[in-house]
Amino acid sequence: MFQQQFTIGHGPFERCHTLSLPSIKSMQELKAGIAKVFSVSDCDSICFYNRRDVLTSLDDIEKCDAPVQIRVNGEIVREPSGPEPLPYVGNRYELYPDPLGNYDRLFDRYGPVIKTVNMGTTIYLTNDPDVSREVLREGQFFTKTTSDPSHPLYYMRNNEALFTCDSDAPAFRLAHKFIPPSLTPKAVRHYTPIVQACVDRSYKVFDELDDKELAFNVYQYTFKMAGEIIWKVILGMDLGHFDSIDSKPHETIRLLGEYLSLMKKTSLRGSWYGYLPFGTPKRLRLVRQLLWDGVAKGIEESMPPETSSDLPMKDAALNATCVADYLRRATDDNGEKLPEDIMLSNCVILVGAGFVTTSSLLAWLIYALVKYPGNQERLLQELVNNGAEAGKEWLYDELTEMPFLDKFVKETQRMHNPSFQTARNAKEDVVLPGGYFLPKGAVVIPTFPSIHKNAAHWDNPTRFDPDRWETEAAAFNITRFVTMATNTYATTSTHIGVNATTETTSSVTTQLSVFDLIPPRVYIKFIVYLPLQPKVTFQQAFAHLQAGLQGTLRQFPFLDGRIFPRDEREPGWRPGHIVVSYDPSGSGDRTNPPRQLVFKDLSEVLPDFEDLRDAGFEFSAFDDELVLSAPFVPDLSGGADVFLAQANFVNGGCILATGFHHSASDATGMVTAMRAWAEHCRNLGNPDSNVCDWLAPESFDRTLLERLWSKSPAKPVAEIPRDTWGFLGFQPPDAEDDPAEHAAPPPAPTRTMESSIFYISPENFNALKREVLSDGNDGSGLSANDALLALFWRALMKARYRAAIATGQSTPPDEVSYLESPVDGRTDFDPALPSSYAGNLVIVNKVPMPVVDLAAPTTSLRDVALKVRAQAAKVNPGLVKDAFTLMREVPDYTKLKHAFTRLDGFDVMITSVLLLPLDKINFGADIFDNDGKPESLRPLMDAFNANFRLCMVLPMKSHGGIELLVSLFADEMDQLLEDDEFAKFAAFCCH
């Protein structure tokens, strides 16, 4: 029975529990259990301490003779601190009249979560994105309760409107069903001409102001502009705000501005103040009623002259004259409509939320154009480049595809965010990241302007720099960038010429993970053999593959990206840095077929599929270039596709060839992508199916490793053992040069290796395991993969050693062979890392052994396997984290060299993909035979055979058989075929 005392917090917040957890098998399980007991929002942030040290294993915890202290992100759990409140007024004079400036000052003094008290109301504030993420993620710990008098939107509360109701209000689900579809990107595209018409009507006013050389208050005009657009989009009516330079705002728009001002004044006083029957509270109640009456009148006047028919939601959004028209006509799958009483409240809040934030943002956009040099010119040039001229009608897609416009709006929103009242209520006591304890009922406000200028998370945050959005930090920043969390849909259509920029992002450029910088920058090419169903044409099969790939690229847009060298002018650049650029919205070109997939009819060139199968799908049937026309080492200067494919058709089947840039994926990631493509193909007839629900959304996020690595303290580089570099496949960067490396390089080989397939039957595999593993209970820890590697490595070295002797080449007696065998590091990197993570995360098991010992008949396979296991046993979470730390500190990535990238000597890389789930790749049984699954997988080896010593253990067959891919020169292959020990287990299949 696993039993231990755990304590959390100190002083009045200290709590202690004795836990009996009999089934705990891992630290992750223990953390999850502790999180439930002590209400920790993020179980991955939990760490354990005794009196002095951190406890890193279950054994350490069980043996601890004192209560185990729980910390969060290494911090003792405590209540957030803040300024000492004065009697009655609290911290009022610490906060107002400059709340944003004072928030930043208090964060600098008290930390990322602070406690404030104003007139008896306690509010917690945070500028930490990780804390904010937990707070805004409504669920077990947090909800939105505007009916709580402490909530900043209490005086706007309305339990019928999506953005101002309690999250558990009965109307919330109804409103949430109907409101968001009204302003999706497609709907915004529909309203774009309306927005432009409103802008066009303002030109004569601004021309008159210019002609008369009159100065004017920008915000008064953005106030009118936002009101004009919002009223038109929501209610379909013109307000005449720009009939002349002196046109006054419509009465309801003025009431709206007054209502928000009164609401804010009332909320900043004691909770009793709102109940007064006179003064500001009385006026607030009157203005609220007038506002609701004004919008109700607008809805009534916006009714079309003839009765319009009801439409399904997705169609209504694209055919409505305005949002109110949509809400009147839209029906759900059951034919139900939004009740009229709920419709009025939601229209009021849509108008209010969109109008206020948009008027502010427009003013800040103008301010940014004037204040920050160079941006006017760049924006004007981009407009000119996209065909700007008098009278041009801008299309939605034109606006969303202008990269500088997108970056400029993002940076303005970051520096001058108009929203800072997004609050959530704690449903129970909770411990947040950083160890901050909040009691049940606490109100927390993530202060977006402070988050966006938090120096701990943004590089030079006070600098206005639109280009930060195309750097390697852009994808990381987007997780810390919040525009209008309370009204995302409500404000989208109102940003005039830049509408929908908060809904649609252009391409993001992000630096690849440091582990992505380890492999050679080549395309890894392989083919799968897919038999066709009878009567399925080549064109039908290709269209099927195209449609599936299009869906895959939309769901996982990283695969639609291109890899480039990182700009040397960017901060933090180092030689060898590379980046990937892609559109994270996945909204790419849906009308044209994917550029990555090519069709090729080889039915007149290659044998029929059945004949290829009978020959064992041999390598010699064709040159690699025939089935996939792509360079081995692509030029990155113009961008190299993350992924390429060519569908080659022969009578009876398809040879589907793919190329993945190795900097984008390791073997596991490549099979993950193929599995996703296949699943999209298989579900083309089921558009509503939950495709790829097994694939975690963050699987293609290249900032994920960095975030997980940074969650716990890393070991200083000076304390990391130097031999850790070997597990990365490299010599330490500061290692002394080997004089042999400066000698004249060996002459280029006049011959090329050839690849062959050897087959190990299930029976022979079992025999190999019996010979090498013994009974498996001797404590050696040997695995079946160790046995395979031992057989393979020994056979290869014997063949190469004997071939060298046969040709008169001397081998020094102390010559050492290095086996490099990649090990999947996902399980050891961090428990929170999804197993479907598709980037590179490989540790190299680098095993040395003298060549003479490997080739000696007195050396058993078990001896070799024990060498492999001894080195592999060193791979653990600590080593993987140390390896990541080392890679982050490399000053020049171009200096790192792989040992296996040579043909001379006795080194070899053996990649074992034995357990990759090839059987889960299913492209659809309607088009392809064999239940839609590939019959075989073959790497394309021509380029490797000319450059590298690489061999492979291929994925296990469904019946348990194993294929070995062997690449050797002809004389070495002759020696291998004479090896009785190898032949005892492996039979030659094909070249």
Automatic annotation (TrEMBL):
Which UniProt keywords are given for this protein, alphabetically ordered? Heme, Iron, Metal-binding, Monooxygenase, Oxidoreductase
**A Gene Ontology molecular function term of the record:** oxidoreductase activity, acting on paired donors, with incorporation or reduction of molecular oxygen
Keyword Heme in the entry? The reply is: yes
Membrane-traversing stretches: none
Q: Is Heme there in the keyword field?
A: yes
Please report a single Pfam family linked to this protein.
Answer: p450
Which InterPro entries does the UniProt entry name for this protein?
CAT-like_dom_sf, Cyt_P450, Cyt_P450_E_grp-IV, Cyt_P450_sf, Cytochrome_P450_monoxygenase
Needed cofactors: heme
Question: What family does the database annotate?
Answer: Belongs to the cytochrome P450 family.
Q: What is this protein called?
A: Cytochrome P450 3A6
